[in-house]
Amino acid sequence: MTGSVFRRWDLEDPSTVAAIFPGCRRGIYVLHFANGERYVGQATDVVARYATHRHGSRHHAAWADIVAIECLEVPEGDLNGPERETIQ
Asked: Are strands 38-43 and 7-10 parallel, antiparallel or unpaired?
């Protein structure tokens, strides 16, 4: 993953990210919150996973304070390694 580049989008309307992921949606993502905290995750469909974060699930309440998202496309292969590297 060394040398890989994350793309970042500041979210004026954080309700959905579907428009910024028209093609491949598989990879590692970083959510940026209004308080400066970040969350790193992996998904085979970043758009669907983002919706779960925004609307909540049995694991956590809805996250309404997301201000930006970064994404690294990982079209095939293991997602665990790149996610661990991003967290470190």
From this structure: unpaired
